[in-house]
Design brief:
Chain A has about 160 residues and is an alpha+beta fold. Chain A has 6 helices and 6 strands; from the N terminus they run ααβααββββαβα. The interface between A and B is large, with 38 and 38 residues. Chain B binds a DNA duplex (30 and 30 nucleotides) through helix 2 and helix 4.
Chain lengths: ~160, ~160
Amino acid sequence: MKKNSKQNSRWMHGKFKCNGYRMTKAREAILDILANTKDHLSAEDIYLAIHKFYPNIGLTTVYRNLEMLVNIGIVVKFDFGEGRSKYELSDHYSEKGHHHHLVCKECYKVIDYSDFMKDELNFLKNTENGLSQKYNFEIRDHLIQFFGICESCRK
Amino acid sequence: MKKNSKQNSRWMHGKFKCNGYRMTKAREAILDILANTKDHLSAEDIYLAIHKFYPNIGLTTVYRNLEMLVNIGIVVKFDFGEGRSKYELSDHYSEKGHHHHLVCKECYKVIDYSDFMKDELNFLKNTENGLSQKYNFEIRDHLIQFFGICESCRK
DNA sequence: TTGATAATGATAATCATTTTCAATTAAGGA
DNA sequence: TCCTTAATTGAAAATGATTATCATTATCAA
């Protein structure tokens, strides 16, 4: 739990209110954890991190709030094939900015990358346009992930 | 269970043997189901389809064999965010050929597309090269998916 | 046909995620 | 500040997909 909790709760307060939600300790704590990590955390990771400061916030509450945060677009849920979901602040709210993931099939380590974005933007623009027309599909989102074997797992 | 079961079992027999596996009724049936559908089936879907012809093949066996088939690269496992995995014959063994997926966030209908592959190949080639060098990562695989709302869910 | 061993089926166990429901709390107005 | 009300919570139980166990059966090379 780091310094800018206050800031987070301030900028989120409005966002929550206009969606009919309240600002609670649990929500503030979850956002705080997510804002101050570079890792990709599971619901349980987040629960454990929060638990040190607020031992009475339960895992259920963490799950419930993550779902809500995903729904209003503040958090993104990922599946890296590990058997449980991982969560990140969405690009817009994160210091990381736009990025994609490179996932080790062996140890599930995840590397964020934001290189080669020109190629990617080109590809995405063309493909999204083409697909939405051809298949009459309203495209909301995309997922690009690379899988492989990381340096340490290769040794 | 359609006509070409015999064919399937024939071309798979060798593949299995050289990996130390045996050809069994369950494996033949799973491949047969997958070869004769355009859908994306869950383990249970496959189990149910097989069950009509071989009522004594259990769900456990289907799971076990799917895992094995994924391991030797004949089958690919997908997660469309529905809470259970879906399986397809891999590109090389399927009549579908190389394709990606367009997933409806509402009803989880999946559209296969293979348009815009020039853009995609370009993007993939550059990105994979760049990433594997920069991050010293041996890239094995990639996942590209688009999510949105399909025609009928928009009405 | 037979022996070694891979594969199977039934059942129980796991494990992440959800549901239930009574108790608590945030937030806006009196 | 106090009240009201609906949103939120925690604990516990339920769910649902997937895996592990283990005794039995089936495959296939010799």
